[in-house]
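Hey, resending since the last one bounced:
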Amino acid sequence: MALLKISMCDDEPLALDRLSGMLAKLPDVEIVCGALNGRELLDSVRETPPTLIFLDIEMPQLDGFDIVDALARLDWPTAPPLIVFVTAHPEHAAEAFDSGALDFISKPVRLSRLERALDRARTAVDRAEAQRRLAELSSQLDNLKRTRGAAEVDHSIWVRGGAETARLDMRDVEWIAAEGEYVRLHVGKASYLQRASLTDTVGGFACCGFVRVHRSAAINSALIAAVEHGSWGSLALRMESGARVPVGKKYRAALQTLLGREAGHAPGSDA
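The structure tokens again:
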């Protein structure tokens, strides 16, 4: 397996530490730079060109798109780096995927999602795609900036947990189950009951990646750990917490389309 030399840039130290910690657990990865601003990253890139850059978008002074513009203007003796955007604004994802970026990961970054991005990077390196991707990304910067300038989406809701009411980021919700006139939001081992329909909840937070997979259940597509094939042709999704969500027959075609689009391949399957 080829060694991936990785640089990172994020103005949030905690986010940078989290990403660095996850990368340190993975094989055939070498972190060459963890920059807190664009200037620092560009200086490092000139000194030690990486294979792959994990790049935040919203940063002061030089933002992620400014950095891409600067990278596209450099004279690369070999292949330029591949770009993976890492940001708290998933509403930019569709445009980023079409732009030439290798991948787009929403915060908080999950280990399984990070592994899939690295798999994509190795495939792109094998196919010598880096030069083409950087050129395409550079040509789409104006479109990406216009998308970023659109109104930001609020991904949070207020939920009741015991004696307190707390703000819940819907991007942390693994799956949603319908319970009569309510929905139950599952976050790891915890859950919260909300008075709402499954249809309205999924539609209202579609930007967070929710997809209906059963008449009474929807999942967060970013938090799928595996697809399980059972007896008699049954199908279920195993989420990152270990929760198992069955897939209804009428939703299988939509699920296959989703898995084919997510990172270019489906998550690992269990026979």
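Residues 93-98, 261-271 have pLDDT under 50 and may be disordered.

Sorry for the duplicate.
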